[in-house]
Amino acid sequence: MTMISWQTLLKRDSNAVESQQRKRQHKLRADRVGTFEVLRAPGLFLALIAIFLTGCESSNAPKLGRWEGPPLLSDASVEAWSFRGEPARRIKSAHYVIYTTITNEDVLTQLPQVLEGALSQYRKLAPGVPVTLVPMECYIFDKRIEWEAFTKANTGADAAVYLQIRRGGYAVRDRFVSYYIGRTETSSVTAHEGFHQYVARHFVGRLPPFVEEGFACMFEGISWHGDALPRWNLAINQVRVQALRKAVEANRLWPLEKLVTMHAGEVVEENGEKVDAFYSQAWVFAKFLYEYENGRFRTQLQTWLTETANGTVFDPTKTHRRAGGPWNRQGVKPMLEHYLGLDFATIDRLYREYVRQVAFDEYSAQWRS
Ligand SMILES: [Zn+2]
Predict the structure, then answer these.
(1) How far is the CA of 217 from the centre of ligand 1 (A)?
(2) Distance of CA 297 from the midpoint of ligand 1 (Å)
(3) Between the N and C ends of the chain, which has fewer C-beta atoms within 10 Å?
(4) Is the distance from CB of 113 to CB of 73 less than 8 angstroms?
(5) Measured in angstroms, how far is the CA atom of residue 61 from the centroid of ligand 1?
(6) What residues does each domain of the chain span?
């Protein structure tokens, strides 16, 4: 299937926002709140070059992953809503209610399909986690000025922090708020933020922020089957793999030992390339957990996620068993060792080998799969 969309990249200023947000952790459960994503010009041009360059390679080359998605359109209904006295819409689907001022009918049709389709993808990570029966709320505005007004009205003193976001959106607990930035980019942000929302709603415990961020990135790339049904291939993220490749070639990789204890806000003082490296490494670490050596760790990953969702995750510090309170980053390494059944030095070695595999050996397959 041809990839017709591209994924999103985070910009440095989004992480500046996250950093400030983290400082408000005591008030805001900041690891949940600090999930702002900001888009920059997508890598379409590079993607097109890569398609051109790889077009000469053998068609027998291995493909990555599988494209999957809902077989049928999800039911959705549209009701009248109003925002600041102006007519707006409320879209209801099985698991979501989307409040929106968008008027483009194609986009309105697409949004519930993205969310419901993405939810079925999120659930593949930990199928044992029961899905909520209470719809998850999303606010997706047509114009930034509307998003700003909503943010000022609903986030109190923290609005100033959110308003620094230049493009995209943010998630607060199990609700996300974004605005329209183009059809495919809006879909990517929706699927990414939707994962943070899914975890916030369904998980009693806390994933290490770096791990949650990486999985959110796994859902960014959406292609469309027949222009109506979204499709995901969790092995593919063309934008992230480009950033990863650049980071490797520029020798800018973060050490895994550092990464697993970090949240995005902590890279704020770094330059944009280091930020890109952080997210691309988060993405490739999630990919490592999900599909390294044909899914060698997938069963353990499911156990890890399920126990996190249940509030029984292995963590010597016990701080990951509840999402709400402060967390102790010292718990992450023993948690990884426990669930992967390997010492950290071995995990680190395998991860570093995998980074090179993805950034080089599998690179062109990202465009031909
Ligand atoms: Zn995120």
Answers:
(1) 7
(2) 23
(3) N
(4) yes
(5) 32
(6) 12-368
**Residue 80 C-alpha to ligand 1 middle, in angstroms?**
30
With a CB cutoff of 8 Å and minimum separation 6, the contacts of 62 are: 365
Rounded Cα distance, 162 and 178, in Å:
11
The rounded Å distance from CA 215 to ligand 1 centre is 9
Q: Retrieve residue 219's tokens.
A: 């859902």
pLDDT band, very low/low/confident/very high, at 268 (cuts 50, 70, 90): low
List the beta bridge partners of residue 68: 232
Tokens (6 digits) for 309 = 């969702």
Taking Cα atoms as reference points, which of 327, 357, 186, 345 lies closest to residue 261? 327
User: Do residues 35 and 195 make contact, with C-beta atoms less than 8 angstroms apart?
Assistant: no
Choose among 36, 25, 43, 28: nearest CA to 268: 36
Do 115 and 194 form a contact (C-beta atoms < 8 A)? yes
257-282: burial string, b at 16+ Cβ within 10 Å, e else: eebbbbbbbbbbebeeebbbbbbbbb
Structure tokens at 336: 């990884």
Q: What is the pLDDT of residue 30?
A: 31
| Spacing, Cα 168 to ligand 1 middle (Å) | 11
Please name the amino acid found at residue 136.
Answer: M
The model's pLDDT over 101-144, given as tens digits with 9 standing for 90+, comes to 999 999 999 999 999 999 999 999 999 999 988 999 999 999 99
Distance 35 CA to ligand 1 centre (A): 5
CA of 192 to the centre of ligand 1 (A): 6
What region does 38 belong to: left with phi over 0, alpha with psi -120 to 50, or beta? beta
Q: Which residues pair with 21 in a beta bridge?
A: none
3-state secondary structure 138-161: EEEECCHHHHHHHHHHHCHHHHHH
Q: Are 220 and 214 in contact (CB under 8 A)?
A: no
